[in-house]
Amino acid sequence: MPGPSARRTALVTGANRGLGRETARQLAAGGLRVIATSRDPAEARAAALAGEGQGGAVESLPVALDVADPASIAAAADRLRGAATSIDVLVNNAGVSLDGFDAGVARATLATNFFGPLRVTEALLPLMPAGGVVVMVSSGMGELAGLDPGLRARFTDAALTRDALIELMDTFVADVAAGRHRERGWPSNAYRVSKIGLNALVRVWAPQLAERRIAINAVCPGWVRTDMGGRGASRSVDKGAASIVWAATHPTGGSGPTGGFFRDGRAIDW
Ligand code: NAP
């Protein structure tokens, strides 16, 4: 058994309920030290206490981590850096599926589901050693099938950069605000666009992170019975979280997959 210092540390966003909470529990049960984070530190603490009850080593971050708020991300990263915490596994789980569709919904959805994971990852990468793993909790809704061919070509362009991708995502919000998103080929679904962008970010970053022996993959947990998925969803929270945990714990150090999209440990189409 490795001692506490040899134990890998995972940080999970949105760990206070749903898939994030269960992912934190499963990772701890598998022997990782888990840092549960939430917009409300008290809720993260409650999730950590529940995880401890399961015998796992779940801790909580005593400050809020609101992934849609850059100042909150910076404060959380400072706190971790101050404690010399090394993050081996980052699970970008926090996400929203908002009702309605207009520029406000588009902006708020991207702020949490696309810019959130982007900023959290950039803030925590300096704390991640070689052998680290980043998991982007995405969705089958982010599949490219059915997307306008012109937009699909832009999202899959091998020359796409982080900055060009951000510009593309901002264009979506601007097109919605200007009432021209349909003529530009965008779907009337901000959640879908947010996950298409998140998947593209995985493809853009994978080769760069491979140079540091850090893996990054997107995961679809399936349709899960959480607040977001609803009671009629086909999957239990356990099973959906297991799909995430697989990607968070696959062989590291360059021998595991990177730059892929997975469900239940199997590659799925972008
Ligand atoms: P959920 O039960 O609605 O939980 C969402 C979690 O995200 C909550 O912990 C929530 O915290 C957190 N969150 C939302 N906005 C946040 C922010 N700005 N900063 C920090 N945390 C924030 O949803 P879920 O089903 O567990 O979803 C988890 C992930 O799985 C999401 O990325 C979702 O897109 C993805 N997913 C879910 C399904 C499904 O069927 N359920 C399918 C495919 C993908 P609060 O309590 O503070 O709101």
Describe the structure in your own words.
The chain is an alpha/beta fold and 270 residues long. The protein has a single domain (9-99, 112-141, 195-267), classed as Rossmann fold (3-Layer(aba) Sandwich). The chain is built from nine helices and eight strands. The site of NADP nicotinamide-adenine-dinucleotide phosphate (NAP) has 30 residues, from helix 1.
Name some characteristics of this structure.
alpha/beta, Rossmann fold, 8-stranded mixed β-sheet, 9 helices, 11% strand, binds NADP nicotinamide-adenine-dinucleotide phosphate
Q: Please give the alpha-carbon distance between the first and last residues.
A: 38 Å
The CATH architecture assignment turns out to be: 3-Layer(aba) Sandwich
Q: Which structural class is indicated by helix and strand composition?
A: alpha/beta
Whole-number count of domains: 1
Q: DSSP helix count?
A: 9
- Compute the CA-based radius of gyration: 18 Å
- Give the strand content: 5-15%
Give the spatial strand order of the biggest sheet.
3-2-1-4-5-6-7-8
